[in-house]
Specification:
single chain, 902 residues, alpha+beta, Ubiquitin-like (UB roll), disordered N terminus
């Protein structure tokens, strides 16, 4: 109404000058600032050369107002020139939105921009009002029925305005009551369990399932229909859906009225159209069976299977539709699958996008769909999977694009999103079992975008120092034969990681080759050389080095138990030397203790350890063979598929070591629902010596416990423990200083000087009385008359075994509030495993936890684990409790690893 009055007033002012009609020789526009002349001339209903009158003026004013650009329009005449004087509407300088939380500002802004309301545009009041109503509808769609949106316009200089939008979101309406009426076959509880929406279960406090949304209800109704149609109820329908809202607009009441009908059975199955593929082959994928209950899901899946078969044969545009024809009297259905193959399609080009670093050649050699060949959906998808398995890309997408002007050619476009596939860095990390990890390394799985793997570096942690270099070319030949080269030098102190007291110093080199035997399987073999030097610690168990043994003293001699006990008794306070020496007339007396040479009869019987039999320094050539089969959906934190790897390695006969090892690693994923996936893992191993070696070298043993093994137990603590080491007792004081075996008062002053003591080298002690109180004070002593006395010095640490058995079941869980979980994973797990030995020492050894293979001795635990591939490196945490533990197992509830481990 207001616009009409303005228009009428302007027309009255302009009318006297335009009372008579005239011919327009020119048109002049005045008042334009931001609006260009083009839309104005386009809106004018007159042109130069035409004759206009008062009615034409009215049309001009109406047309210009209808553009929405102007708040005022005046028409004037100067001779035969038509003058149009315009007053532009203000433009929008800023838009400010306040009060919104449930819907992000970006989403509200997107709605406004879709309706041409943005900064820099001309303000149109009716458009602004319409948008506020649209924003309110956005909230209504989210069950916020009390939401309101108000817009205020603030005038600014230079014919500009600012728009402030105030949002009152109100409260989200919750579903108070939900029921189904008309069901007789299935109970209401079973049907409601199908729904995404519900009235709010106590065990789903943060699910938002009780928040009403029309889209959710529509989806649940479709789910309900599919449930009945999949069970043969072809007459099923939802008669009505009644939705009521409480007066305060915070509660929703939903009632669904349904009609179930009768069950239909399949009477006949036909294939019509032009299937191209022989009908016998197509019928193999038909899931429906004559005489059985009809299932819409089986019919749909059959259509998809047939479509896939057609697509794999080059007919990627094939259409397959299952058409059911009901017989309501007999309650039967005739199903016809109509096949329209369309034209056979060929691939013109394969294009790659997003590979900034990786060369096209690296991607193209993974293609199983070739250019110029007939298109195959399976080969196109298989090529996508192979790109994902490379581990270079965070995401891979594929699209087929029709070639313009043809109906039988397509282009295949692969879009990749590259991710870090290596590092050139100084690295710092921490692992609970290995401590601080420091290193300077270069590691690239996609070296300079060539797809080659190169790494070299210096890495050090608590138990290992490693200098390494490796190079691998996955396409050493165009057929996919791979070749790898590596060289290394490392030192390891196993006593730092819960293993027996020994260390190794090794260097070596390897060359490996791999051959593809199918799209998902490979075999490989390798040849290598290794030199290892073994160093035993003081507490090395008897399986490694025999004990007790004589030390390399200057003279191997012994004193008697009686003399030892006398000189080691607490000294008189007047004796500054600390030794008990007889005193006569307040003067120390010279003394001498008899020493004797050790003979074989004085030594205790022992069994030889590995080093006693085979030595400490080994050089060996090695051979290896492996087989792998991988169908995982991606290289890191996979969620689908399976992986298996079997490896055999052995030293070459006549090497200084002769042994072999066989290991198997496998895991498989079973998707249970959209959000839950079951993963089963196993790790098995067996090794033994051959030829001149009767057993697997102890430094090649298997270990179990910790990350990547049986969580909840300390690293490498499961399985056999080494027999305690022993030492012959020597005459030393509490500070391990040698006790003297004699004193001669050289300067005749009656006092003991250190230069006057004799026998400064420790002497062994021969047992005389095994019931002596000093000996019986400890249960870790050996005292046999005539034999050298010995005592236990070493603890009972792990020594590993030649048989490994580990199993794990993990449930991959959804992570609350996290949308992109490709770089993190939350699992609930049960782990079980142990290490066993085929040659446990039972005679003179006291070996603990050494068992032959038996499920009764599997240690197990249950808990939760979380892994995050962060920018700082992998971070892994787990918390678990033991379910079954063997004697001497060492548990560790919380375990973690942070940063880059080596």
């Amino acid at each position: 109404m207001k616009r009409f009055l303005v228009l009428l007033a302007l027309f009255v002012v302009s009318a006297p000058s335009l009372a008579q009609s005239f011919r327009v020789d020119d048109i002049r526009l005045e008042g334009l600032q931001r609006v260009s002349a083009s839309p104005v001339f386009a809106a004018l209903p007159v042109q130069v050369g035409e004759t206009i009158d008062r009615e034409d003026v009215r049309d001009i004013i109406r047309s210009l107002f209808s553009t929405g650009f102007f708040s005022g329009v005046q028409i004037a005449r100067e001779g035969r020139v038509l003058i149009v004087i315009l007053q532009e509407r203000p433009s929008i300088k800023s838009i400010n939105i306040e009060g919104n939380k449930a819907i992000k500002t970006e989403q509200l802004t997107e709605v406004m921009e879709e309706n041409d309301l943005r900064e820099g545009e001309i303000l149109q009041q009716d458009l602004l009002q319409g948008i506020t109503r649209e924003l309110e509808r956005q909230y209504v769609a989210r069950a916020r029925y009390g939401a309101s949106v108000e817009a205020e316009v603030e005038e600014l200089p230079n014919n500009m305005v600012g728009i402030d939008i105030q949002v009152d979101e109100g409260k989200s309406a919750r579903i108070k009551h939900l029921n189904i009426v008309g069901n007789t076959v299935f109970p209401e509880e079973e049907l409601l369990d199908l729904f995404e929406i519900d009235t709010g279960k106590w065990y789903k406090p943060l699910s938002g399932a009780d928040q009403y949304a029309k889209e959710k209800l529509t989806g649940d109704i479709e789910t309900l229909e599919s449930f009945y149609l999949d069970r043969g109820y072809l007459d099923f329908e939802v008669l009505s859906s009644q939705i009521s809202i409480s007066p305060d607009k915070t509660q929703v009441f939903i009632t669904l009225n349904i009609h179930e009908g009768e069950i239909y059975t399949v009477k006949s199955i036909d294939i019509a159209g032009d299937p191209i593929i022989p009908e016998e082959r197509l019928r193999r994928v038909v899931l429906l069976r004559e005489g059985e209950t009809f299932s819409q899901r089986y019919m749909t899946d059959t259509s998809e299977y047939v479509t896939t078969m057609m697509g794999n044969s080059g007919y990627t545009n094939a259409k397959v539709e299952g058409i059911p024809e009901k017989n309501q009297e007999e309650h039967t259905v005739d199903v016809t699958f109509f096949v329209d193959p369309g034209k056979r399609v060929y691939v013109r080009r394969i294009n790659f996008r997003g590979n900034v670093k990786t060369s096209d050649e690296v991607l193209r050699r993974e293609m199983r769909q070739m250019e110029g060949a007939s298109a195959s959906n399976s080969r196109i998808e298989q090529s996508k999977v192979r790109l994902e398995r490379l581990g270079y890309f965070k995401e891979v997408q594929v699209n087929t694009v029709d070639v313009l002007g043809t109906d039988d050619m397509i282009d295949v476009d692969y879009s990749v999103e590259e991710q870090a596939s290596g590092s050139i860095q100084a690295s710092v990390g921490y692992a609970q079992t290995t401590g601080l990890n420091l290193g300077v390394s270069v590691q690239q799985n996609n070296w300079l975008g060539t797809g080659k793997q190169v790494s070299f570096g210096i890495n050090k942690n608590t138990y290992q120092t490693l200098y390494s270099y490796s190079y691998s070319d996955p396409y050493f030949t165009p057929d996919g034969v791979s070749r790898g080269l590596s060289a290394y030098y490392r030192t390891r102190d196993y006593s730092k990681i819960n293993v027996s007291s020994y260390s190794t110093d090794a260097y070596g080199a390897d060359m490996t080759f791999g051959y593809p035997i199918s799209e998902i399987s490979r075999v490989g073999f390798g040849l290598g050389f290794i030199n290892q030097k073994i160093k035993t610690g003081r507490y090395a168990p008897q399986e490694i080095a025999s004990s007790p043994s004589l030390s390399a003293f200057s003279s191997n001699s012994y004193i008697t138990q009686y003399d030892w006990e006398n000189i080691s008794l607490p000294a008189a306070s007047a004796n500054p030397s600390g030794y008990a020496v007889p005193i006569e007339n307040n003067q120390y007396q010279e003394f001498e203790i008899d020493t004797y040479a050790i003979t074989e009869e004085n030594l205790l019987a022992t069994q030889p350890g590995f080093i006693d039999e085979y030595g400490k320094d080994f050089s060996s050539a090695t051979l290896s063979f492996n087989w792998s089969r991988i169908t995982l959906n991606r290289g890191i934190l996979a969620t689908r598929g399976s992986s298996q790897r079997l490896q055999f390695e052995a030293t070459v006969p006549s090497s200084e070591m002769e042994y072999y090892k066989l290991t198997y690693n496998g895991h498989i994923f079973f998707p249970l629902t959209k959000d839950f996936t079951l993963r089963l893992k196993s790790r098995l191993g067996y090794g033994d010596g051959y030829g001149s070696m009767d057993e697997l070298p102890f430094f090649e043993n298997f270990y179990s416990g910790g990350f990547g093994s049986v969580r909840g137990f300390e690293r490498s603590t499961l399985g056999p423990r080494g027999s305690p080491s022993w030492e012959y007792r020597t005459a030393v004081d509490n500070n391990r200083n040698a006790l003297p075996t004699g004193w001669t008062d050289l300067n005749r002053d009656g006092n003991i000087q250190s230069t006057e003591l004799s026998g400064v080298s420790p002497n062994y002690i021969a047992c005389e009385d095994p019931t002596s109180p000093q000996v019986l004070n400890s249960s870790y002593q050996i005292c046999e008359p005539g034999k050298l006395m010995a005592y236990q010095t070493g603890g009972v640490r792990s020594i590993g075994g030649n048989v490994l058995a580990e199993f794990s079941a993990e449930m991959i869980l959804p992570i609350p509030f996290i949308e992109d979980t490709r770089s993190m994973q939350l699992v609930a797990f049960v782990d079980a495993g142990n290490v066993f030995s085929g040659y446990c020492r039972k005679d003179n050894f006291k070996q603990l936890n050494c068992h032959e293979i038996s499920a009764d001795y599997l240690s197990s635990s249950a808990g939760f684990g979380f892994t995050w591939i962060s920018g700082f490196g992998p971070m892994t945490f787990s918390y678990s409790v033991p379910l079954h533990r063997n004697e001497n197992d060492r548990t560790e509830a919380f375990q973690f690893s942070f940063g880059t481990g080596f």
